[in-house]
Amino acid sequence: MLANFTLYKRQKTIWRTLFSEIFKKLTLNKMKTINKFFALLFVMAMAQYGLAQTIVGSAHDFSGDTWNPSGEVCIVCHTPHNANTTVTDAPLWNHEVTTATFTPYSSATLDAAVGQPDASSKLCLSCHDGTVALDNFGGTTGGTNFIGGNDLLGTDLSNDHPISFTYDPALASADGGLFDPSTQNSGLGGVINDDMLIGGKMECASCHDVHNGSGIGFLLVKSNANSALCLTCHNK
Question: How far is Cα 48 from Cα 44, in angstroms, rounded to an integer?
Answer without folding.
Answer: 6
